[in-house]
Design goal:
Largest sheet: 8 strands, mixed
Helix content: 25-40%
Strand content: 15-25%
CATH class: Alpha Beta
Radius of gyration: 16 Å
CATH topology: Rossmann fold
Strand order of the largest sheet: 1-2-4-3-5-6-7-8
Number of strands: 8
Number of domains: 1
Order of helices and strands: EEEHEHHEHEHEHEH
Structural class: alpha/beta
Distance between the termini: 26 Å
CATH superfamily: Alpha/Beta hydrolase fold, catalytic domain
Shape: globular
Length: 242
């Protein structure tokens, strides 16, 4: 199993300014490894913004040698959104989701990938959670990143045509008890991707929505993490030219 990540609260979070192809400028949290491997990961937020948990994911990837950045995807509505899971903030989070411009968000993610390539990163993967999980899969389908990992992408079953055009390696993770990405939705995604040699789809018994935790304490978390690490090493390695 991959090494357990260090405390995501350690140190002061840093940010980088990114410009997308439309000229929009936004912030992204960044974690820089002590020993960079020349590869990078774009970490895509849940509906709660670039929270401490999302920055913790960036730290996890940095420990593996990847430069990791998490773009503020809600910047067009409010900059620096960081919401909790109390009732009021959950309501606010769904409000942001309802107003979120997915097409514009994909432009921002493309901007992050381009930014990292301009910084000399040989390969870039996109890893997303919830809302970010859907976006990670769509970026992989567009071929903008070298690989994508999607955790419980909500609403992905509404983009099956895009998935059928998948051009990059994609790994998907779903909990079987997820009310927001229910088994029927996952089955439709799996059917659309049937026969695709560059796709891995995993389901986790007893796991609900947002089952993955930076501390890897939930039963499904360490299994999903090990699969993610192996996938990234396989598709971002120097010898892989896919």
């Amino acid at each position: 199993m991959a090494a357990t990540p260090r405390d995501p609260d350690a140190g002061v979070p840093m940010n980088v300014r990114v410009t997308n192809r439309d000229g929009g400028v936004f912030d992204a949290a960044i974690a820089i490894p002590a020993d960079p491997n020349g590869r990078a990961v774009v970490v895509l937020q849940e509906i709660f913004g670039v929270t401490r948990k999302i920055r913790g994911y960036c730290e996890m990837f940095a420990q593996l040698g990847y430069i990791a950045i998490a773009p503020d995807l809600f910047w067009r509505m409010d900059r620096g959104v960081q919401l909790s899971h109390d009732a009021g903030d959950i309501q606010r989070a769904f409000g942001y989701l309802k107003r979120f411009d997915e097409v514009a968000g994909l432009v921002d993610i493309d901007g992050c990938v381009a930014h990292l390539r301009e910084q000399g990163m040989a390969k870039v993967a996109v890893v997303g959670f919830c809302l970010g999980g859907k976006l990670a899969a769509l970026i992989a389908a567009r071929g903008e990143a070298d690989a994508g990992v999607a955790f419980y992408g909500v609403g992905l079953e509404q983009s099956l045509d895009a998935l059928r055009d998948l051009s990059r390696p994609l790994q998907l993770h779903f909990g079987n008890d997820d009310a927001y990405a229910p088994p029927a939705a996952v089955a439709s995604i799996e059917a659309a991707l049937a026969g695709a040699a560059n796709v891995e789809l995993y389901r986790y018994e007893g796991a609900g929505h947002a089952f993955f935790r930076p501390d890897l304490k939930d039963a499904a978390s360490p299994v999903a993490w090990d699969r993610t690490v192996a996938f990234l090493r396989r598709h971002l390695s120097p010898e892989d030219t896919a």
